[in-house]
């Protein structure tokens, strides 16, 4: 009975302590088999009326279990308990041998001592087991405490890493915002410096233009008078009685002089137009915005620009298309300034279609071209939209990028100052807080887009 309790208890303790069912499944099967063997031996012992043979079979069975425990590294944690069973096994083995070789009378005389020794050995085994369990519980508590501590430390570490990451992201965002603000400040500073330079340049330009205009007027006036005087002189020479050869020689000189004066007049007028453009470009409008019929203003300047070109080229014709929004009514603008914008845009549009017609006339492959200039107005969402569209020559991207720069022009010398669109851009963007943009398809069309905010 004692060996049954020993083996059964030892097997159950090993399975529980080592968790063989999950961690050592192969050994768990063997331990369960050993448990059934111990049950079988216990049953055989009582069935066979406490057979001595069955009693001796316990020793190799227990010895085999102990041999596995002390030879296999998997069972190292339970060796201390196995060692606690040695006194009990030694006493039981001594009792069994004494029962075989000691006379029955002498054995019975000391049997009580032997039983007492066996009981104390069993108590010792129980004490060892209890101490082992106590140590194991303390160890488990320490491990659990360490695990909780590790989890807390890991949670703190993760929380700290999260805070560090969040702080890094926030610092990076603030750095980017500060960098963006710094870049904007630098850009604004550069714009202010450029604006100040342009303002100073505008004042200087206006002053120079004013100073140039008076002597330029004298040059133009006297050159025109000189042409007339050359004509009169040529007529008077014909009335004299000097030889014809001399008359022809003098007439040739007068003709050269007249041509020189005409060239002076031509280039003087060209310089005069540039000066007037500079004055217009540098002039700051001091007028107040007035309620203006935008549709009527656009139509008036469209026809004015058309007839202005027709006066220079009698053969020029173009279709004038209007698509006016009748709901616009009157809008507060600077009518004279906006009229100059319309005049510049329409003049450029008619020039572009006239140039394309001339090129197509020289190219027999495209005889069916019909010039067309279109103006569209629309009031939507508190903004006034104006579009001036032509089906003329268009412009390449290189020209489009510079189209609003002062003194930039694509027209031949004498036909453009390069200030019209620059002045128009300033009027729309600065005087009306609007936008002036251009889109173009080279060789096909150009569209100028004006957007002006309208107070409700």
UniProtKB/TrEMBL annotation:
**Matching Gene3D superfamilies:** 1.10.287.130, Histidine kinase-like ATPase, C-terminal domain
Per the record, the coiled-coil ranges are 131-198
- Please give the Gene Ontology molecular function terms for this protein: phosphorelay sensor kinase activity
- The transmembrane residues are 30-48, 53-70, 82-101, 113-130
- Identify the residues that the record assigns to the Histidine kinase domain, covering every copy: 207-456
Which enzyme type, at the first EC level? Answer: transferase
Catalysed reaction, written as an equation? ATP + protein L-histidine = ADP + protein N-phospho-L-histidine
UniProt xrefs under Pfam families: HATPase_c
UniProt keyword terms in alphabetical order: Coiled coil, Kinase, Membrane, Phosphoprotein, Transferase, Transmembrane, Transmembrane helix
Enzyme Commission number, as recorded: 2.7.13.3
Keyword presence, Phosphoprotein: yes
Against PANTHER family, the record matches this protein to: SENSOR HISTIDINE KINASE, TWO-COMPONENT SENSOR PPRA
Protein name as it appears in the record: histidine kinase
